[in-house]
Design a protein that fits this description.
Distance between the termini: 20 Å
Order of helices and strands: HHHEEEEEEH
Strand content: 15-25%
Radius of gyration: 14 Å
Strand order of the largest sheet: 1-2-3-4-5-6
Structural class: alpha+beta
Number of strands: 6
Shape: globular
Mean pLDDT: 95
Helix content: 25-40%
Number of helices: 4
């Protein structure tokens, strides 16, 4: 997880923000919602691990990772997807169909196999580096 922090900290600092962990209450809400929706345990575990380090990315340089207690994460669950964040028109989601964290857009779950990740941390880093 340290590689994610190393990528995110400069973005936060550039905008006068600090990386902080999600409060325990928010993590509990997330875990209950995820369990209630039937999100796979491994996905919940990875997301919880991230949120233990980073509460959210609050629209810094058009880059957002939704906070764990935001209901918007589950807005697409009827389609088997978690909506985890965005960067401009790029969408970060978990897809049950692909069993991967994916970067795509409104019409594409992922742009290619290179934008499909087993690890959430790798997907966040890829989204953070979209313009690098």
């Amino acid at each position: 997880m340290q590689h994610v922090i190393n990528v995110l900290e400069p973005i936060f600092q550039e905008h006068g923000c600090r990386v902080k962990s999600a409060p325990e209450e928010s993590l509990t809400i997330f875990k209950l919602r995820a369990h209630g929706h039937g999100v796979p345990d491994e996905v919940t575990k990875q997301l919880t691990s991230f949120y233990l380090q980073v509460a959210e990315v609050p629209c810094l340089d058009s880059f957002v990772v939704h906070g764990c207690d935001e209901i918007i994460i589950f807005e697409w669950w009827q389609d088997g997807e978690l909506w985890l964040g965005t960067r401009d028109y790029y969408i970060l989601r978990w897809s049950s169909e692909k069993a991967r964290f994916c970067i795509g857009d409104a019409n594409n779950v992922s742009f290619s196999n290179e934008e499909e990740f087993i690890m959430f941390s790798d997907a966040v880093v890829a989204l953070a580096n979209v313009y690098s």
